[in-house]
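Convert to structure. Protein one:
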Amino acid sequence: MTTNTLSHPRSRFDAFTRLVPGLMFCTVIAAAASFVSAQYGGPKFLYALLIGMAFHFLADNGKCLPGIEVAAKKLVRIGVALLGVRIAISDVHAIGTVGVVALAGAVALTILFSLLLARLLKLPPMLGLLSGGATGICGISAAMAISSTLPQGKENEHFTLLTAIGVAAFSTAAMVLYPLIVTAMGLTTSEAGLFLGGAIHDVAQVVGAGFMISTDVGDAATLAKMFRVAMLMPVVVILMLVFHNARTAAGGSEAGKQPLVPGFLLVFIALVAFNSLGMLPASVVAVSSDLSKWCLVISIAALGVKTSFEKLAELGWQPVALLLGNAVFIAAYMLSVVFMTRLWTA
């Protein structure tokens, strides 16, 4: 019995040490990406992807592989769970009824449009769902969360990485171009906030675009964007229920042991509730938000290491057309909402 008691902690320690090289490697990539982003601008998620892909030759390294796998599949769940601290139900009231309906419609219609466009382009529905959810909700974070609800496998990882790259690229382009649209069309502060917060993919790019115009537009855009982030919760819950049997079938006996609603999603819901009730100190929210970002950027770095440029090039032009179509659709939709609201209140 003494031998078993001693060997059990030892086996756990050995298992942990096997993860260290890969985890540290992905963390270094994430740190490098964050440094480049802070010094020269641009999205750190995209930098982490590209730097990781440059080190694809280490994906099959026996020492690094276990840690890379954990970073790609486990850390994303921690990062998504901690996103809950950035959301409060009270934020919904500040947007107004029209804004809430319009933003909820943007999420639902973009996902439906993406599924339809993927079918027209003869692409897998999984890619349509990932790209539509990422475009409609909150960029790479949504892509990673939605990916965790789908049957796991090489195809899932491949499509998730492709979506992440495309969303990061189009979101950065939107951050530069959409403020020019706001100025050219003479949008008011509330209209500009609704358009930017409803049409740009990632939170960081929404903030950047809004504050390029003014502080008030930046605040309004951020609020609208956070409502879209809040839509991640019901979307992920629905997808978890829809794909539960598919994940079980794809995962074999181990998948059969998985709960219907995973722990990370329950933590996400709990943190939203606690934050809405004012139970989380500002310091806890700040630390948890930063930790969430680090988990997600390390995870996306790991996905980058696992995928090569050659594999992405084999996909052709259709996925690019899908992501571009989604970006144009949600921007056109939000502009139409802005002008219809203007006519209604005139």
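Protein two, convert as well:
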Amino acid sequence: MAGKKQFDVDVALDAAMIQFWRSGYADTSLDDLSAATGLNRSSIYSSLGDKDALYLRCLDRYATRYGDRYDQALASAAEDPLRAMRGFFDVTLQRIADPDVPDGCMVAQTTMAIPALSGAIAARAIDALASQQARLRNALIATKLTAGDVDEFAVHFVAVNQSLAVMSRAGANQRQLRTIVGISLNAFSRALSHRS
């Protein structure tokens, strides 16, 4: 049928997301995106948008995909806070160990490149980090920790989670990454044992 798209938009977006995630915004050319998606430049522009628009769509897709997994892990925070936080970090560690996706985190990679990015992309990366902090804060409120502890652990867990992505790109192995998580979870466990 004339005018009908001959490709699956979700498949193309996933391929573009992986390309951006692997190489970053600056080091991904339209030729790279064309090779990754199987689309010519014209089809990319007409169906997926220019490079900035496509990157924003991919960043949103990434944040939603992993955000949903984090939400599932944190759902049990009121009943078993330590298990919930372990599950939160397991989402990241499983992503890092997945051979089908690049090392690291697309949000962390984007955040580190903020000085070279457009204002819209920089704002979206900052929003993604703020959303993760809000997600953690909401889960931690259910633990009955003090408001100060809730805020401090939310910031700390976001920082640790992003550092896991950076460390994995630098070659840290799963044992080392799990040690980083373990130290944070031990501190969290101690705080839980002292709650009123």
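The CA atoms of residues 77 and 108 lie 25 Å apart. The chain has a mean pLDDT of 93.
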